[in-house]
Amino acid sequence: MSNSVLWHGVYPALLTPFTQNEEIDFDMFKKNLKVQIEAGVSGVILAGTLGEASTLTAEEKFDLLKAALSTVPEGFPVILNIAEQATKVAVEIAVKAKELGATGLMLLPPMRYKAADEEVVAYFTTVASATDLPILIYNNPVDYGIKVTLDMFAELEKYPTIQAVKESTRDLTNVTRMINRFGDRFKILGGVDTISLETQLVGAVGSVAGLVDAFPAETVAIYKLAQVGRLEEALKIYRWFMPLLELDIHPKLVQYIKLAATAEGLSNEYVRAPRLTLVGEERERILKIIEDARATRPTLPDYKNL
């Protein structure tokens, strides 16, 4: 089994930039990826919610994986998200991801079916048994309708490939419950931008971030400062960041974060239908939040050497 993912630090849920005719813009994808690496992220996650997984074909996800692997330094973790309806298809993607060189997988519960607890556990464990890639379970009952409970994690505990959880329940006490029950068996990564610092302070060892797609240095700086106890400095950046972080918890988070990344030269605004690009008052309102933040950007300490 691979131990090449430490599950510590910041893991961007990367955007999938598109051209105007809805083809993947690989040049922009690689540009953003390189900036993330330069900022000091610990790995990247492809084809998640922010990556518009719901409108990508399996082949396109593999193309993104190949593009990322051809861009990152050797050994840099590249995680492919799996969000499928059928267990068989999820297994096929996991096997193919391993063949192509993925470092790990993020795994959502079954899509488009409100599975019972035992069905979700069976889905996860079937995929985990089919690959030796390390797996990050995405626990997001707010957006996906299924909560992975502590009792379900007790079933998953037996599978060594299931190593971490993206904690997106939005219930900070759940982090403490997980640690009280399982110790450090599951590495906990915060999954909600607006409580990312709080999640870290109660025991998360990293985060899967959204606004990092536009502001990687600030995201990593907050994590690193908090890690070494320089909380006052972390809080100052975090408070500046909060109006932007709130863009991550809206149904149009893809459009909002793409607009922010576009302002930073790291994406374009194009999305794939049924999503539509922002227009009119909404676009102007979101753009003002972005521009106000860019105009008051804090000076960062030398966070890479903390």
Give a structural overview.
The chain has helices at 26-39, 58-69, 87-100, 117-129, 141-144, 150-156, 173-182, 196-201, 216-227, 231-245, 253-263, 280-295; strands at residues 9-12, 44-46, 78-82, 104-107, 135-139, 162-167, 187-190, 206-209. The chain has a single domain (9-305), classed as Aldolase class I (TIM Barrel, Alpha-Beta Barrel), CATH 3.20.20.70. It is an alpha/beta fold. The protein has an 8-stranded parallel β-sheet. The protein is built from 12 helices and 8 strands. The relative contact order is 0.14. The chain is globular. The longest helix is centred in the C-terminal third of the chain and has 16 residues, at 280-295. GO terms for molecular function: 4-hydroxy-tetrahydrodipicolinate synthase activity. This is Dihydrodipicolinate synthetase. Pfam families: DHDPS. InterPro entries: Aldolase_TIM (IPR013785), DapA-like (IPR002220). Pyruvate binds at residue 208.
